[in-house]
Specification:
Helix 1 (about 1-20) packs across helix 2 (about 65-75). This protein has about 210 residues and is an alpha/beta fold. A hairpin with a 7-residue loop joins strand 7 (about 145-150) and strand 8. Strands 1-9-6-2-5-3-4 form a 7-stranded mixed β-sheet, with helices on both faces. Strands 7-8 form a two-stranded antiparallel ribbon. The protein has 5 helices and 9 strands, in the order αβββαβαβαββββα. It has one domain (about 1-205).
């Protein structure tokens, strides 16, 4: 099984590296002074993480599923680091690891509607991590001039060669440590609404 993952992930990484060369990332409102941070993205727009600088400084949270194993192999081959787990399976271990990474001055990329959806619905896990770590959530959204959209729950998008890819960063959202469950819901909605707003802005800039 490991050999299978190696072969498929090598091919997938080669394809992603080709797209990196064939497409043009453009960053808007990127503020590195806000890092370390938790970059909040939709599951279907994970490719946009390729536009983040210094990939080794970005740890992507990936589930412990079989699909997650393949994804972990692939993202490591294109220069990212990984954290394995989710807010369900392996949740406590993953949370401790995420907080340690943030304390070490590195960034986390968090698919806020993953790993199984529903799509475009922010879950509370990212709010709790921001509260525990004291690090900001930075919503991130993107679009591309030309793209293929997979018929999956997350409507996963892959840009086609020759695309312009605007990456639009939101303002940092800090979550106080002593908030109630009701206030957690308010912050969850704030992140969700910001992601929708950033999507509209990305569409205008593509």
């Amino acid at each position: 099984m490991k050999i299978k993952y190696e072969i498929i992930s090598t091919l997938a990484a080669a394809g992603l590296n080709f797209l990196d060369l064939a497409n043009k990332f453009e960053r808007y409102n990127y503020k590195p002074e806000s890092e370390p941070a938790i970059y909040a993205i939709w599951h279907g727009l994970q490719y946009c993480l390729g536009g983040l600088p210094n990939r080794k400084n970005v740890h992507i949270l990936i589930s412990l599923s079989k699909d997650g194993e393949f994804i972990a192999y692939t993202v490591k081959k294109i220069g990212f680091s990984t954290v394995r787990g989710s807010m369900g399976r392996g949740g406590m271990k993953a949370t401790r690891e995420i907080i340690r990474i943030l304390e070490d001055g590195k960034n986390i990329a968090y698919t806020v509607d993953g790993p199984k959806g529903p799509g475009h619905k922010v879950k509370k896990g990212v709010i709790r991590i921001a509260r525990m770590s004291g690090r900001p959530i930075i919503p991130l959204n993107s679009d591309s001039t030309f793209r293929y959209v997979f018929p999956s729950w997350d409507k996963y998008q892959i840009p086609l060669p020759g695309s312009k890819m605007p990456l639009v960063f939101g303002e940092p959202i800090y979550v106080p440590e002593d908030i109630s469950e009701e206030e957690i819901e308010q912050y969850r909605l704030k992140v969700e609404n910001e992601l929708f707003k950033l999507r509209q802005e990305a569409e205008k800039r593509r």
